[in-house]
Structure formats: C-alpha cells, structure tokens
Amino acid sequence: xxxxxxxxxxxxxxxxxxxxxxxxxxxxxxxxxxxxxxxxxxxxxxxxxxxxxxxxxxxxxxxxxxxxxxxxxxxxxxxxxxxxxxxxxxxxxxxxxxxxxxxxxxxxxxxxxxxxxxxxxxxxxxxxxxxxxxxxxxxxxxxxxxxxxxxxxxxxxxxxxxxxxxxxxxxxxxxxxxxxxxxxxxxxxxxxxxxxxxxxxxxxxxxxxxxxxxxxxxxxxxxxxxxxxxxxxxxxxxxxxxxxxxxxxxxxxxxxxxxxxxxxxxxxxxxxxxxxxxxxxxxxxxxxxxxxxxxxxxxxxxxxxxxxxxxxxxxxxxxxxxxxxxxxxxxxxxxxxxxxxxxxxxxxxxxxxxxxxxxxxxxxxxxxxxxxxxxxxxxxxxxxxxxxxxxxxxxxxxxxxxxxxxxxxxxxxxxxxxxxxxxxxxxxxxxxxxxxxxxxxxxxxxx
Length: 447
Ligand SMILES: Cc1cc2nc3c(=O)[nH]c(=O)nc-3n(C[C@H](O)[C@H](O)[C@H](O)COP(=O)(O)OP(=O)(O)OC[C@H]3O[C@@H](n4cnc5c(N)ncnc54)[C@H](O)[C@@H]3O)c2cc1C
Description:
Layout: E1 11-15, H1 19-30, E2 34-39, E3 54-55, H2 66-75, E4 83-85, H3 87-92, H4 94-102, H5 106-133, E5 140-141, E6 147-150, H6 153-158, H7 160-168, E7 173-177, H8 178-184, E8 194-198, E9 202-204, H9 207-220, E10 224-227, E11 230-236, E12 239-244, E13 247-251, E14 253-256, H10 262-267, E15 275-285, E16 322-324, E17 329-334, E18 337-342, E19 344-346, H11 356-368, E20 380-387, E21 393-396, E22 403-407, H12 413-429
Parallel strand pairs: 1-2, 1-14, 2-10, 4-19, 6-16, 14-22
Antiparallel strand pairs: 3-9, 5-9, 6-8, 7-8, 11-12, 12-13, 15-18, 15-19, 15-20, 16-17, 17-18, 21-22
The protein binds flavin-adenine dinucleotide.
Flavin-adenine dinucleotide binds at residues 15-21, 38-41, 46-48, 51-54, 56, 229-230, 257-261, 280, 282, 341, 382, 384-385, 407, 409-415.
C-alpha cells in the first residue's frame, strides 16, 4: 500500500491539432487522461507546417518593445518588407492595435522577456526529450541554430537593447564580424556587417515531421484523433458537448488550442479575446549543392502552398536558419530545400493572400545566397496568433469550468508548444506548475 493519491483520469477534448494542440494532447495522454484531438485538417498542416523550424530559447524581446514606437513613422509608410499592414484592417481593429502598442514600455518588454524565457527553456528541454522518445533525432539541429544577421552598422546598433535584455534573462549568444560570418556560413555573400549567433537555440529540418512524430506518440499511447470541424461548444451538468461536422463529442474538459481560430471559437462562449493575426509566407528553393542524401522519413507533402512537384530532397547549402534583420526575412534549411519565410502581414485572417512580401523576401534572399529553382508553384501562407501583450494564454477559462485555453503563441509557437503543454497539464492536474503560470493566465485580461 502506498499513500499516493490515485490519479484521477479525465476525459479531455483538445480542439486544434497544430503543434500547440498536439503537444498538449500528448502530454495529457501521457499523464493518463483519455484524450481526443480534433482537427479539421491533417494535424500540423496549418501555421505549424510552414514556420522556420527554430526551437528558440532566445526569442524573448517581443515585437511590441520600446523600439517599435521609434520605428513607427518609418513603418507607417508601409514599405518595410518585415511588416506590411492593411490600413483598413488597422482601422477596423484600432482597439487591438492601440492595446498592442500600449505594451511598448520597458517594463512590459522586461516582463515579457522573463516570462517567455522561462517557457522557452522549459520547452526546449521537453522538445529534446520527446525528439529522443520519438526516435526522430535526425530532424534536430542541436545548438547554434539561429543566426541574426545585420547588413549595416546602424541596424546592429539598434539591436543593442535586445542584446542587453537577452543577457539579463540568461540567453547565451555570440557576436561575429564579417570574416567570422564567412567562416561559419561560407555560402553567404559577404553582405553582413555583424551576426549574432544564438548559442543554445536549436532547429528542426521539418516542423511537419516533428508534429507527425509527436502525434504518433500520442496515438501510440492511446490517444484518439478525429478529423472534423468543430462547429459548436456547449456545457451542462454532464460536461462539455463539442459539436462537430461528424457528430457530438462529450468530455469533462475541453482544451482550446486552435491557433488563429481560437478567438473565434472562444467568442461562441462570449469571450472577447484580444487577438490579431500576423500572417507570414514561405517558399522553398532547391539547394545549389549536390544531394547528400538527407531525406524525409515521413510525409512532408505541402498542405496548401502548391504542388510541391519536386519530391527529391537535397541537403541545403546553409547549415542553420538565418534572419536578415534589415531584409525582414528568414532562410531555413529544410528537407524540402531552402525555406525562405517572410515577415509580418497584418490583415484579416482570411483575406486573400498577397505574395508581394514573400516575392520581395526571395529576391532579397538571393542577394545573400545562391538559390536554386523554386520548388512550389505557389507560396504557402500561415497565421501567427498574437495577443496584445505578446504572451500566450495558458490556463483555465474564467467563466467555464473544465474549459482551458492554450493559444496566442505568435512568432514562437513551435518553440513554446511543449512548455505550454507541461504548464497546462500541471494546471489541469492541480499539481505544482513547472514555471510561474501567472504571466500566462487568462484572467490577466477582462475577457
Ligand atoms: C512564416 C512563419 C515563420 C515562423 N517561424 C517560427 C519558428 O521558426 N519557430 C517558432 O517557434 N515559431 C515560428 N512561427 C510561429 C509558429 O508557426 C506558430 O506560433 C505555431 O505554428 C502556432 O501553432 P498553433 O498550434 O497554435 O496553430 P496552428 O498550427 O495554426 O494550428 C491550429 C489548428 O487548429 C485547427 N482548427 C482551427 N479551427 C478549427 C475548427 N473549427 N475545428 C477543427 N480544427 C480547427 C486548424 O486546422 C489547425 O490545424 C512562424 C510562423 C510563421 C507564419
């Protein structure tokens, strides 16, 4: 006989099978609960499909920092490749914009940095454990996995503040000059004045394969996956009814992890979530170096970006993801080739895609790297779900027992998904949280 209390098993429905929902479902299933994951698509095929694959421990300085206010006059011209906005959207959502900008204070930036750092470190550690458990070590690039590059002295000088905040919260990074950049990444043209390498940041060669691997662990441990659209949510004494196109699913708890669609779903229950969508695009280019045999073990078929006609994967001529700070784009070596990703497009979630930014990104990227032929016919588009304080919401919904929120992971959802899952599971299990949950709690907003 032990004095351990018996583990209480709960039935839990997780809505949304992006990396955030899959990680939450996996953790809760491993805890011993009975979990059903619902997504209208194959899991991991929305925003979690097309990101730059960075598993960051260093992305602590949020976009709405004091420097954003100084940059506003230039950004308002709407010519920056890093940020484009639809003026009508901004006018329609002026409340969100003003609240987002109201967080551009040093104290907010510091609070966000400390909070994000705790979640990022927890997450990276858990990613490494799950990657090992799933036996997909071939997807992981350990350390040195994020290289921020500056073309000019002035832009590097502007980065000083971010470096000081990173240092304060324990991020390890190294600054390199032009010649050192050439030695680290010989395929880059010598256009960069300085580079900042995040020493402990990791990255993956395929975010989709990573989600698939976590999903396979979830299923192997007894989790159920349902492919259907959620169209309604209601609650009574018997628990939650999740109304889907294929019928009604009943459970004691519901986790809402539907990324950019979470605000709409929470809205069905009367919550007014301060969320907007920072849309972003990608395109792949074949590597200029010969195939050295790195290949995908699972399905990386493009979910919406085009035909992905070229299925022969090559090892890219870049050894880690880079971010060109002035150019406002990233290039990440992926199983499909070099993935160029664009910055932020602030517009309606479902507005037709506008490929101007990604085309410009590809053109700017070709100044830095020799890009081979384009892999897809059409760019892919994703939606980063962003809350006004640039922190995700992880915790109990204020007015509904058994409803849990886990969304708003903006630019770093791939990085933060496992830590968010650990935090959420501790709250659902009523066990000690692994980090301070207060910065992420839902009740920080009156919604
Ligand atoms: C260009 C770009 C580059 C990025 N680079 C990085 C990076 O390098 N590192 C990093 O950490 N992050 C990065 N991000 C951010 C990251 O991709 C996101 O934060 C993350 O994917 C969000 O995951 P999610 O699970 O919350 O949302 P999603 O992946 O969008 O998943 C939400 C899921 O909910 C489902 N859903 C929605 N509504 C319903 C419904 N009614 N019924 C059923 N299912 C529903 C959708 O089908 C979808 O699968 C990047 C994003 C972009 C756009």
